[in-house]
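SECTION: protein entry
WANTED: fold as tokens:
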Amino acid sequence: MADEFQVHGVQAMQAELRKLARLSHDEAAEALVDGSEFLLGEARKGVPWQDGDLERSGTASQDRDELQAAVSFNTPYAVRQHEELSYQHDDGRRAKYLELAMVESRPKIAQIVLRRLQMLWGG
């Protein structure tokens, strides 16, 4: 990338900076996709399981323009299963399956984002 950044005058510099910003935004958006998909996979590992509907309802969605992502589970009982601490679950399955996956995955998600940005900057 550094080899491509050549500037001759203010207008050329502004054009190169806009190009760099677009590339950075695109890479950030890709990192967002990678991170949210990773989180979804980790959350699915802890989802209470009976017939698999709750696990299959999980989705990762992204707004690439706004650089925002969401991971959600969409069954009528998803919130209750997530919040009810008194329910008994099979080994490895738990309440707070999304919240805990997020807390536990923060270091790995940070690595995913960093690796993507390092690719942009040639690191």
